[in-house]
Amino acid sequence: MKLLTENELIWSPIVANNRMNRKRKASGINSYEKELKFKPEEYLDTCLEQKTHVKWLDLCCGEGNALLQYARAVSDEGRQDRVTLVGIDLVDQFQPIPPFVNCLRFEIGSLVNWTNDDQYDLITCVHGLHYVGDKLKALSTGLKLIGNQGVLIANLDLNSIKIEGDQNGQYLKQLFIENEIEYNARKKLVRCEGHRDIYFNLTYKGADDKSGPNYTGQEAVDSYYGMTTV
Ligand SMILES: C[S@@+](CC[C@H](N)C(=O)[O-])C[C@H]1O[C@@H](n2cnc3c(N)ncnc32)[C@H](O)[C@@H]1O
Question: I need a labelling partner for 24 at 20 to 30 A (CA). Which of 41, 72, 91, 172 fits?
Fold first, then answer.
Protein backbone atom coordinates (compact mmCIF):
# COMPACT_ATOMS: atom_id res chain seq x y z
CA MET A 1 0.00 0.00 0.00
CA LYS A 2 1.29 3.46 -0.89
CA LEU A 3 1.03 5.67 2.16
CA LEU A 4 0.53 9.40 1.76
CA THR A 5 2.86 12.00 3.23
CA GLU A 6 1.36 14.84 5.26
CA ASN A 7 1.67 17.18 2.26
CA GLU A 8 -0.09 14.75 -0.06
CA LEU A 9 -2.80 14.11 2.51
CA ILE A 10 -3.96 17.72 2.77
CA TRP A 11 -4.89 17.59 -0.94
CA SER A 12 -6.78 14.33 -0.55
CA PRO A 13 -10.51 14.58 -1.43
CA ILE A 14 -11.24 12.90 1.93
CA VAL A 15 -9.57 15.75 3.84
CA ALA A 16 -10.30 18.73 1.58
CA ASN A 17 -13.94 17.73 1.62
CA ASN A 18 -16.69 20.31 1.61
CA ARG A 19 -19.36 17.87 2.68
CA MET A 20 -17.95 17.24 6.14
CA ASN A 21 -19.73 18.83 9.08
CA ARG A 22 -17.76 21.94 10.04
CA LYS A 23 -20.71 23.78 11.50
CA ARG A 24 -21.08 22.48 15.04
CA LYS A 25 -21.79 25.00 17.76
CA ALA A 26 -20.77 24.65 21.40
CA SER A 27 -24.22 23.51 22.54
CA GLY A 28 -27.65 22.77 21.14
CA ILE A 29 -28.48 20.81 17.98
CA ASN A 30 -25.38 19.90 15.92
CA SER A 31 -22.99 20.72 18.71
CA TYR A 32 -19.91 19.77 20.68
CA GLU A 33 -22.21 19.15 23.64
CA LYS A 34 -23.88 16.39 21.62
CA GLU A 35 -20.64 14.84 20.34
CA LEU A 36 -18.62 15.07 23.55
CA LYS A 37 -21.41 14.74 26.14
CA PHE A 38 -19.84 17.83 27.63
CA LYS A 39 -21.00 21.44 27.53
CA PRO A 40 -18.00 23.73 26.93
CA GLU A 41 -19.76 26.86 28.20
CA GLU A 42 -20.72 25.28 31.49
CA TYR A 43 -17.18 24.09 32.05
CA LEU A 44 -15.63 27.46 31.17
CA ASP A 45 -18.17 29.40 33.23
CA THR A 46 -17.28 27.24 36.23
CA CYS A 47 -13.57 27.92 35.60
CA LEU A 48 -14.37 31.63 35.52
CA GLU A 49 -15.80 31.37 39.03
CA GLN A 50 -12.41 30.11 40.20
CA LYS A 51 -9.91 32.12 38.17
CA THR A 52 -9.68 35.49 36.53
CA HIS A 53 -8.98 34.34 32.96
CA VAL A 54 -9.87 31.22 30.95
CA LYS A 55 -8.56 29.91 27.63
CA TRP A 56 -10.21 27.52 25.17
CA LEU A 57 -8.33 26.04 22.24
CA ASP A 58 -10.41 24.31 19.57
CA LEU A 59 -8.30 22.10 17.29
CA CYS A 60 -9.79 21.42 13.82
CA CYS A 61 -12.42 24.03 14.62
CA GLY A 62 -14.14 23.96 11.21
CA GLU A 63 -16.20 27.12 10.75
CA GLY A 64 -15.46 28.10 14.34
CA ASN A 65 -19.11 28.21 15.38
CA ALA A 66 -18.47 26.65 18.80
CA LEU A 67 -15.99 29.37 19.71
CA LEU A 68 -18.18 32.06 18.20
CA GLN A 69 -21.16 30.94 20.26
CA TYR A 70 -19.17 31.28 23.49
CA ALA A 71 -17.56 34.53 22.32
CA ARG A 72 -21.01 36.06 21.78
CA ALA A 73 -22.18 34.87 25.19
CA VAL A 74 -19.22 36.35 27.08
CA SER A 75 -19.49 39.52 25.05
CA ASP A 76 -23.18 39.88 26.03
CA GLU A 77 -22.17 39.33 29.66
CA GLY A 78 -19.39 41.94 29.44
CA ARG A 79 -16.56 39.55 30.35
CA GLN A 80 -14.63 39.15 27.11
CA ASP A 81 -11.51 40.57 28.75
CA ARG A 82 -11.41 37.44 30.95
CA VAL A 83 -11.53 35.00 28.03
CA THR A 84 -9.16 33.87 25.23
CA LEU A 85 -10.51 31.68 22.44
CA VAL A 86 -8.32 30.15 19.73
CA GLY A 87 -9.39 28.01 16.79
CA ILE A 88 -7.13 26.29 14.29
CA ASP A 89 -8.07 24.53 11.08
CA LEU A 90 -6.40 23.45 7.88
CA VAL A 91 -9.08 25.17 5.83
CA ASP A 92 -10.09 28.81 5.99
CA GLN A 93 -13.83 28.35 6.25
CA PHE A 94 -14.18 30.31 9.46
CA GLN A 95 -17.33 32.32 9.94
CA PRO A 96 -16.66 36.06 10.25
CA ILE A 97 -15.82 37.31 13.72
CA PRO A 98 -18.33 40.05 14.62
CA PRO A 99 -16.72 43.46 15.19
CA PHE A 100 -17.75 43.49 18.86
CA VAL A 101 -15.83 40.23 19.56
CA ASN A 102 -12.21 40.72 20.61
CA CYS A 103 -11.49 37.53 22.55
CA LEU A 104 -11.32 35.16 19.57
CA ARG A 105 -8.78 34.42 16.87
CA PHE A 106 -8.61 31.82 14.14
CA GLU A 107 -5.42 30.34 12.70
CA ILE A 108 -5.06 28.46 9.42
CA GLY A 109 -2.69 25.50 9.33
CA SER A 110 -2.20 21.81 9.81
CA LEU A 111 -2.14 20.55 13.37
CA VAL A 112 0.91 18.45 12.64
CA ASN A 113 3.06 21.54 11.99
CA TRP A 114 1.47 23.72 14.62
CA THR A 115 2.43 24.48 18.14
CA ASN A 116 1.86 27.13 20.72
CA ASP A 117 3.38 28.13 24.05
CA ASP A 118 0.18 28.80 25.94
CA GLN A 119 -1.63 26.62 28.46
CA TYR A 120 -5.37 26.11 28.06
CA ASP A 121 -8.21 25.38 30.45
CA LEU A 122 -10.11 23.57 27.72
CA ILE A 123 -8.87 21.89 24.53
CA THR A 124 -11.38 20.30 22.19
CA CYS A 125 -10.97 18.42 18.94
CA VAL A 126 -14.33 17.35 17.58
CA HIS A 127 -14.15 14.83 14.73
CA GLY A 128 -10.91 16.40 13.52
CA LEU A 129 -8.28 13.74 14.25
CA HIS A 130 -10.07 11.37 11.84
CA TYR A 131 -8.56 13.40 8.96
CA VAL A 132 -5.11 14.07 10.36
CA GLY A 133 -2.15 11.98 9.18
CA ASP A 134 0.12 11.94 12.22
CA LYS A 135 -2.70 11.75 14.75
CA LEU A 136 -0.35 10.99 17.65
CA LYS A 137 1.76 14.06 16.99
CA ALA A 138 -1.38 16.19 16.92
CA LEU A 139 -2.63 14.53 20.10
CA SER A 140 0.68 15.00 21.91
CA THR A 141 0.69 18.70 20.94
CA GLY A 142 -2.76 19.02 22.50
CA LEU A 143 -1.72 17.12 25.65
CA LYS A 144 1.27 19.43 26.16
CA LEU A 145 -0.92 22.52 25.99
CA ILE A 146 -3.36 21.52 28.73
CA GLY A 147 -3.03 23.75 31.76
CA ASN A 148 -2.50 22.19 35.20
CA GLN A 149 -6.21 22.18 35.94
CA GLY A 150 -7.31 22.06 32.31
CA VAL A 151 -8.94 19.32 30.28
CA LEU A 152 -8.61 17.97 26.74
CA ILE A 153 -11.48 16.10 25.10
CA ALA A 154 -11.30 14.71 21.57
CA ASN A 155 -12.99 12.19 19.32
CA LEU A 156 -10.40 9.53 18.60
CA ASP A 157 -10.86 6.18 16.92
CA LEU A 158 -7.96 3.92 17.88
CA ASN A 159 -8.99 1.55 15.06
CA SER A 160 -7.66 4.14 12.63
CA ILE A 161 -4.18 4.04 14.17
CA LYS A 162 -2.29 1.06 12.79
CA ILE A 163 0.85 0.09 14.66
CA GLU A 164 3.20 -2.47 13.17
CA GLY A 165 3.53 -5.46 15.48
CA ASP A 166 0.68 -4.39 17.79
CA GLN A 167 -1.34 -7.54 17.10
CA ASN A 168 -4.14 -7.07 19.62
CA GLY A 169 -4.32 -3.27 19.46
CA GLN A 170 -3.39 -2.84 23.12
CA TYR A 171 -0.27 -0.65 22.77
CA LEU A 172 -1.95 2.76 22.92
CA LYS A 173 -4.61 1.66 25.39
CA GLN A 174 -1.85 0.54 27.75
CA LEU A 175 0.11 3.76 27.23
CA PHE A 176 -3.01 5.78 28.01
CA ILE A 177 -3.59 3.80 31.22
CA GLU A 178 0.03 4.32 32.30
CA ASN A 179 -0.29 8.07 31.71
CA GLU A 180 -3.74 8.37 33.30
CA ILE A 181 -5.45 9.35 30.09
CA GLU A 182 -9.03 8.13 29.81
CA TYR A 183 -10.07 6.40 26.61
CA ASN A 184 -13.68 5.38 26.08
CA ALA A 185 -13.57 2.74 23.32
CA ARG A 186 -17.35 2.71 22.90
CA LYS A 187 -17.77 6.47 22.54
CA LYS A 188 -14.33 6.82 20.93
CA LEU A 189 -13.43 9.70 23.17
CA VAL A 190 -10.11 10.55 24.73
CA ARG A 191 -10.04 12.76 27.81
CA CYS A 192 -7.14 14.02 29.83
CA GLU A 193 -7.02 16.31 32.85
CA GLY A 194 -3.82 18.29 33.26
CA HIS A 195 -0.69 18.65 31.18
CA ARG A 196 1.07 15.52 29.76
CA ASP A 197 4.33 15.17 27.90
CA ILE A 198 4.16 11.73 26.33
CA TYR A 199 6.76 9.86 24.36
CA PHE A 200 4.87 7.40 22.18
CA ASN A 201 8.03 5.57 21.01
CA LEU A 202 6.46 5.26 17.55
CA THR A 203 7.61 6.42 14.13
CA TYR A 204 4.99 7.80 11.78
CA LYS A 205 4.99 6.08 8.39
CA GLY A 206 2.18 7.79 6.50
CA ALA A 207 -1.56 7.86 5.93
CA ASP A 208 -4.11 5.90 3.97
CA ASP A 209 -7.09 7.90 2.69
CA LYS A 210 -8.71 4.87 1.05
CA SER A 211 -9.66 2.96 4.16
CA GLY A 212 -13.34 3.87 3.76
CA PRO A 213 -15.87 5.09 6.32
CA ASN A 214 -15.01 4.96 10.03
CA TYR A 215 -17.51 4.64 12.91
CA THR A 216 -19.05 8.01 12.03
CA GLY A 217 -20.08 6.70 8.59
CA GLN A 218 -17.79 9.25 6.90
CA GLU A 219 -14.70 8.35 4.94
CA ALA A 220 -11.65 8.95 7.12
CA VAL A 221 -7.90 8.50 7.20
CA ASP A 222 -5.90 5.64 8.72
CA SER A 223 -2.49 6.48 10.19
CA TYR A 224 0.42 4.03 10.15
CA TYR A 225 3.22 3.76 12.70
CA GLY A 226 6.16 1.49 13.41
CA MET A 227 7.88 0.97 16.75
CA THR A 228 10.83 3.32 17.07
CA THR A 229 14.14 1.48 17.25
CA VAL A 230 17.23 3.26 18.49
C1 LIG B 1 -15.57 17.04 10.51
S2 LIG B 1 -14.80 18.61 10.54
C3 LIG B 1 -15.17 19.12 12.21
C4 LIG B 1 -15.07 20.61 12.40
C5 LIG B 1 -15.54 21.14 13.75
N6 LIG B 1 -14.75 20.59 14.83
C7 LIG B 1 -17.00 20.82 13.93
O8 LIG B 1 -17.29 19.83 14.61
O9 LIG B 1 -17.83 21.56 13.38
C10 LIG B 1 -13.07 18.23 10.63
C11 LIG B 1 -12.17 19.42 10.48
O12 LIG B 1 -10.81 19.00 10.59
C13 LIG B 1 -10.05 19.85 9.74
N14 LIG B 1 -8.75 19.22 9.49
C15 LIG B 1 -8.48 18.10 8.79
N16 LIG B 1 -7.16 17.83 8.80
C17 LIG B 1 -6.57 18.80 9.53
C18 LIG B 1 -5.23 19.09 9.92
N19 LIG B 1 -4.21 18.30 9.54
N20 LIG B 1 -4.99 20.17 10.67
C21 LIG B 1 -6.01 20.98 11.08
N22 LIG B 1 -7.30 20.76 10.74
C23 LIG B 1 -7.59 19.69 9.99
C24 LIG B 1 -10.91 19.96 8.49
O25 LIG B 1 -10.56 21.04 7.66
C26 LIG B 1 -12.29 20.12 9.12
O27 LIG B 1 -12.63 21.46 9.30
Answer: 172
